[in-house]
Each structure stands twice: as C-alpha cells, then as structure tokens.
Task: inverse folding
C-alpha cells in the first residue's frame, strides 16, 4: 500500500466508467423534468441546424445553378421565400440557444449545489481519524475543484451530447437520402475516428487522474505554508519553502503537460481525418457533378439526373459532413471536460462512500444526566450501576493507590452518587494497528468529581480526553458515560453533554459572540454574556471596540493567545455540559488570568464532572483525584498530598518542576 497521502485509490481503468456516469446521473435525476425540457430544446436546435444546408441546396439547384436563371427569369423571385426561411431559421436558432443556455445553466447550478452540500455534510460526519490521515488541501480540492469540474460536465457536456447526437444521426440520415454512394464515401473514415477516440480516452483518463492528484498537493502545500507563515519567516525558511513548492509546482506542470500532449495529438488527428473525408467527397462527388453537367450539355435532363448529382447536392453533402464532424472535432474539448469530470467523480464518489469509523448505533439509547445535582433522578429507565452491568468486570487497580477512603469510595461509584459519570473498563486503544497508546486503562469518575491526568508527553492523557466524547472507538474494553456504553449513544447527544477546552484554540471568522455560541439559536445573548463573565472573559471583551460584536479574523489571529483561550472556555460553558474536559486549557494564559480562571473553574465545577489534563502540576493540586500516566497505563492514583507522601512518579515529577521553578 502506498504511503503517499495524495495517492488516489485505483478504480477501473475504463475511460467511460459506467458506474461513475451512473453516479453522476443520480444527482441529475431530481432535475429530470428540467433536463428533459433542455433535450427538447436541443432537438429543436438540431432540426434548425439541419434545415439550413437544405435551404441553400434548394436555392442553388433551383435558382443559382448555371443556366437556371436564363431559362426562367421568375426563378429569381423564389430566392426571397428561401432567404426568408433561412433568416427565420437563424433567428429561431439564436432564440433556442439563449433559452437552452439559460435553462441548462440554472438546472446545472441546482445539481452542483446539491452535490456540494452533500459532500460538505458528509465530510462533517466523518470521524476525526479520517482527518488525521487526509491533508486538508486534498479535502478542500474535493469540495471546490472537483465539484466545479462536475459543474462543467453538467452544463457543457451532459445535455449538449444530445444535441450532437441529434445532429449526427440526422446528418447521416440526410446524407444517405441525398446520395447513398456519396454518403458511404464520406463515412468511410469513421472506423479510424473510432480508433483515434479510443486511444485518446485511454491516455487522457490517466493524465487527468495524475493532474488532479498533483493539484491536491499544491492546495495542501499552499494551505500549510500560509498557516505556518509566522514560523517560516521567523526561521528564515522562505527559500526552502520556495524550493519545496517549486517541486510540487513542477510536478503539477508535468502532469498538466501530459494531458496537453494527449489533446495536442487528438485534435489534429481528427482534423486530418475530417480533411480526408472532405477530399474524398470532393473528388468523388465532383466527378458526379461533372457527369450531370455533361448530360445536361447533351440535352438529356432525365439521363443527367440518373448519371450524377447536382452542384447543390454536393454542397449539401459537404455541409452535412462538416456538421457531422464538427461534434467530433469538438470532442477534444468536451472529452477534456468529461475526463476531468470523471476523475473528479471518481474521488467524490470515493469520499461519499467513505463510512465514518465512529457511527451512531441503529437504535441509540438515551443518555442520563451526569450532573451531581441530578442525583436520584434516574427513574425506572436509568442504567444499572457499572458493577452490576451484564458482563462488566471490575476495573483493574493501578500499581499504586494512595487515595484516602473517601476518595476510594467515590471512585467505586458510590459515595451517594450511584452510577459514575465516566468509567473506563480495560480500555486498549491504538491510532494505527497495534501501536497501543492506552493499555488496559481502568478508572471511574464520580459525578461532580474533578479528576486530573498527568504524566510525560505521549503517556496517553489527551487520548483519554478524545475517547470520552467518542471521537475514536476503542479496540478493547469499553467506556461508559452515566452508565451507558458510549457506543450505544448517539454521538450528537453524547457530545452535547461533554465540553472540551483544548490548548490549541480554533476560532472562526465572525465576531466574539458568534465564536462563543457557534451560532446555536438555543444560546441567546444572555447565555453568551453569562459564559463570558463566568470565565473572566468579560473584562477583556469590554475593552474591545465592538465588545461581543468585535470582528474576529480567520483563526482569531486578531486576539492574543490568552484571549482566544478564554473565548474557548466560555464556548464550552455556554453549552452547559455535564462533563467538562480541560486539555492543557491554561497552558497559554498568564498567571493573573489563570488565577481568575481557576476560580471560575471551581465555581462551575460545583455540579459538573471535570477531567483535567495538565503538565503544570501546580494547576491540579486541588483535584479530588490525580491519575499518573506512563506509557499508556495508570501507574499511580490519589490526591496531591497522598501522591507526594507515596514518593513515587508523581513526587518525582513534582520535584523536577519545583526545582526547575
């Protein structure tokens, strides 16, 4: 398997993949009535196009042929009706083209809007593990460039193929009716045309796939470079970044040139075949015209009709032949669009077929409250305690347990609180394969407790925080929230009960209030102001020119790191979660702000369960219980004083931080 994150999965190598065409037509089906109307307009367009050469043929044979005007001066008057009909066909053709373009454009935009919405909605439902593997530029390319490629296919190719089909079929019928032998001469090159088209589509398909892959590389490189511009300029890596982009840019250039070379051969090849067909028609048809003229000169009109063809007929055959080959000559451009669309459809269909690794159960169970003030409110439908759950095993004790009896009672899920708010039972987890990040982790958190997780980087602390809201599924064991296995609960309901404040804060372009409420209509202005006041964010917000309505640029770069952290904290509280996770939430806040935030944490934690990850041990001294992580296991548990008295790994970490301070 390729390790290249941009390597596309290989599908069938057919140029016109019927499965992909079927997928694209699925989105066209809701617009079938509008498309049928477009097809009818195209049928009218084709009829008018086929009428024009025949009108000119009639004028040549009846009026403009040598000697026709001299035999009957009144024949010249017949030009006016023919000219009027030709003008009417031109005006009708222009009107139908306008209506068809407007109608088709509107229909195509509705189809593309539906595809774009489906892709975006599907991407939002994918598990975080998908985004761990996929570069952001590649996903953006799917929603933008690939969808736009389909837009060109729907508006420029799909329905217009019917127009070309009508013209080609109608042209062949008229050619045969005019002169069957001359029609056979004109169509003799069609096998060569078919062979050329087959060779072209085979090579162009592969070229477009490579080109799109390299385009995804460019988008990802641009997104990464622009996001990390501060680091690039700080360390003077502009030249290195330019060289790296030059390589990606050259790869895309080479891929694009491969496609251009294919089209550079295909277009002239079709022109050559068209010219050969015209030359054959002129040579053979010209001979028939000379035979007819010779017969006319000899005075035998009836024998002339049998001996050859009129000059008007030759003109009509040439005109219809050009109309027959014009769609084939335009096939280079249309096949260009079609191949681009097929390459885009290949990736979009793969994306839409990607199933989330974490999916909601078919029949999700309700999630009881994990708030301490809801004790006794379980009712008859509540879950049984963890220790009594069918098949449940008691959590394995960590290597060192120094918690006092009251805390150990809380950990057992009793202490008046019944079912624990959070429980891990023999959890094993790995992001890839069996590279275990967590190894047989078991613990319980009583409702209303504040539990901290400490340890070296890579010990598995943040992974535990990601598993509680079920961003990932465990490979072994199970995780329970309020006594429910998280795999039995709808993800939306579970995550509504869990608030997370992370070290790396992401803010959206908009304003401060919108970044706290995330535009949830259930969170009104009063709730936003209350959340900001609880975390102490109201003080810096009051100094902003616009207050809560102060504009926030992309990623919140107009605000300081500490301000962004406070907004993130207010965002979590605005959703009023039962369980609040703080993953290094105070790492980027100054001491004064951190003290105010710690007071806010103690206030809002009165009826909530808090899970805290921290490297600075001073921030978790007041926790009810501290778990010390090491290589994916809990090696010590207890409160701050008890862990110091045990003189184990926690005490060692404390001394290191205290001495360095």
Result:
């Amino acid at each position: 398997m390729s390790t290249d994150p941009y390597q596309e999965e290989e599908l069938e190598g057919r140029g016109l993949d019927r499965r992909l065409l079927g997928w694209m037509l699925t989105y066209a089906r809701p617009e079938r009535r509008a498309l049928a109307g477009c097809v009818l307009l195209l049928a009218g367009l084709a009829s008018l196009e086929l009428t024009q050469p025949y009108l000119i043929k009639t004028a040549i044979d009846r009026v403009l042929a040598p000697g026709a005007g001299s035999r009957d001066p009144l024949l010249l008057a017949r030009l006016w009706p023919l000219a009027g009909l030709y003008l009417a066909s031109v005006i009708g053709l222009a009107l139908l083209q306008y209506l068809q373009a407007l109608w088709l454009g509107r229909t195509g935009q509705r189809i593309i809007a539906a595809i774009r919405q489906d892709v975006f909605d599907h991407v939002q439902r994918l598990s975080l593990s998908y985004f761990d593997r996929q570069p952001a530029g590649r996903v953006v390319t799917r929603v933008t460039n690939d969808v736009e490629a389909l837009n060109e296919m729907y508006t420029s190719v799909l329905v217009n193929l019917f127009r070309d089909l009508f013209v080609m079929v109608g042209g062949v019928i008229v050619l045969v009716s005019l002169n069957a032998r001359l029609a056979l001469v004109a169509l003799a090159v069609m096998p060569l045309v078919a062979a050329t088209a087959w060779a072209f589509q085979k090579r162009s398909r592969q070229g477009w796939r490579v080109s799109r892959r390299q385009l995804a590389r460019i988008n990802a490189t641009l997104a990464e470079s622009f996001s990390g511009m501060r680091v690039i300029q700080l360390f003077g890596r502009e030249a290195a970044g330019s060289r790296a982009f030059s390589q990606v840019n050259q790869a895309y250039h080479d891929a694009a040139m491969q496609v251009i070379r294919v089209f550079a051969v295909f277009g002239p090849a079709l022109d050559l075949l068209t010219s050969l067909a015209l030359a054959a028609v002129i040579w053979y048809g010209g001979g028939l015209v000379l035979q007819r003229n010779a017969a006319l000169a000899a005075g035998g009109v009836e024998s002339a009709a049998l001996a050859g063809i009129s000059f008007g007929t030759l003109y009509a055959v040439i005109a219809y032949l050009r109309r027959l080959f014009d769609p084939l000559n335009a096939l280079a451009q249309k096949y260009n669009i079609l191949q681009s669309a097929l390459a885009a459809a290949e990736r979009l269909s793969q994306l839409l077929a990607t199933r989330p690794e974490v999916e909601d159960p078919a029949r999700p169970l309700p999630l009881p409250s994990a708030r301490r003030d809801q004790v006794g409110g379980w009712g008859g439908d509540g879950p049984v305690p963890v220790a009594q759950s069918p098949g449940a095993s008691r959590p394995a004790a960590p290597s060192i347990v120094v918690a006092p009896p009251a805390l150990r009672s809380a950990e057992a899920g009793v202490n008046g609180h019944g079912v624990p708010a959070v429980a891990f039972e023999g959890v094993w987890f790995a992001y890839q394969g069996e590279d275990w990040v967590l190894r047989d982790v078991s613990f319980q958190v009583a409702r209303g407790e504040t539990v901290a997780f400490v340890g070296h980087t890579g010990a598995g602390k943040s992974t535990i925080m990601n598993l509680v809201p079920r961003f990932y599924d465990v490979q072994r064991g199970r995780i329970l929230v309020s006594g429910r296995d998280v795999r039995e609960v709808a993800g939306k309901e579970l995550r509504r009960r869990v608030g997370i404040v992370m070290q790396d804060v992401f803010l959206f372009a908009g304003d401060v209030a919108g970044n706290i409420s995330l535009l949830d209509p259930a969170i009104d202005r009063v709730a936003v102001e209350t959340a900001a006041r609880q975390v102490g964010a109201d003080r810096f917000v009051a100094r902003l020119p616009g207050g809560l309505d102060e504009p926030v640029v992309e990623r919140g770069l107009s605000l300081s790191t500490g301000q962004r952290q406070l907004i993130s904290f207010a965002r979590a509280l605005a959703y009023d979660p039962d369980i609040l996770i703080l993953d290094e939430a105070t790492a980027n806040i100054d001491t004064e702000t951190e003290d105010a935030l710690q007071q806010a944490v103690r206030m809002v934690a009165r009826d909530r369960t808090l899970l805290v990850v921290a490297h600075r041990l001073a921030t978790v001294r007041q926790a009810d219980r501290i778990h010390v992580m090491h290589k994916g296991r809990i090696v010590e548990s207890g409160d701050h004083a008890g862990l110091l008295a045990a003189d184990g790994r926690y005490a060692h970490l404390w001394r290191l931080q205290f001495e360095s301070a």
About this structure: The chain has two domains: 18-353, 393-660.
